[in-house]
Amino acid sequence: MGTFNRLHLIRQVDLLTLKLFVSAVEEQQIGLAAIRENIAASTATKRIQDLEDIAGVKLLERGPKGVAPSQAGTVLLRYVRRIFDNLDDMRAEIASFTEGIRGELTVASARSIIVPFIARELGEFKREYPLVEFVVREVENAGIVQAVARGEADIGVFAVTHELDLSGVDVTPYRTDRLVAVVPQGHQLSKQSSVSFADLLNENLIVVHAMRGAVRVASRRLGIEFEPRHNVSSAGVAVSLVEAGFGVTIQPECLVSHELFSRVSVVELAEPWAVRRIHIAMPRGREQNPIARALVHQLLDQPADESAE
């Protein structure tokens, strides 16, 4: 590594890289930070390595359970958080000089999308447009598109499935996520690099209510009518049952926090439908709400997937 060069830092390090560094510290894993910031894991690793080269010192300590800030990284973290706090203050002060956009906006989405993705984006939008009143509706995936089509929501953010009727909405791709298998530590499946859905059906499969439709469709493709033994409505409950040895479950990767890695095993689900494509829905044939347009623009103003690098 070289020595610290202030001018080189200003010219070469962008805000995304600094934000990615903060996310890596908070998530304790570069891969989860990449999901949070919607870029490829390889790109995230390269950006942080480049940041360390510019700083001339190791900023993250790597270990088998993830990453943690080094002494130098802790100093950088303090200053970077101050930078982002100042940016938020600046945005709020500038907004106070103008009326800005005002009105009410209703957003419908599912918990598995709100928690890891849009909650933070909605918070940033709210700070930028303080006169906007938000109504956030937590809806099961199948009901999100219906809410938008019926005019009960201005925007819906949902996971695409083949049975959804999209005739009443216009949709735009937002981001992708993966479904993974969560199994008890020491389980025979935990030793495999990937598992199939058929492998999981041979176990006691714990299915969260929101995923029952997808699981039933996948089961029928195998000629099986599946009925879960346990009825749970949250990912946290499902993972707790897995940890207690009741069975296995399927969860979006973005909901599996780093702390769970020491309690359960996460294995790749090798199925085409394990790629979760998340889209934004807006009403078709009606004049778009200007607030909704502004929010969609912000949601889509994400760094491009730079996996080609």
From TrEMBL:
GO terms for cellular component: cytosol. The keyword Transcription regulation applies. SUPFAM superfamilies: Periplasmic binding protein-like II, Winged helix' DNA-binding domain. It holds the Pfam family LysR_substrate. Residues 18-70 form the HTH lysR-type domain. It comes from the Bacteria. Keywords: DNA-binding, Transcription, Transcription regulation. GO terms for molecular function: DNA binding; DNA-binding transcription factor activity. Belongs to the LysR transcriptional regulatory family. This is LysR family transcriptional regulator. The lineage of its organism: Bacteria, Pseudomonadati, Pseudomonadota, Betaproteobacteria, Burkholderiales.
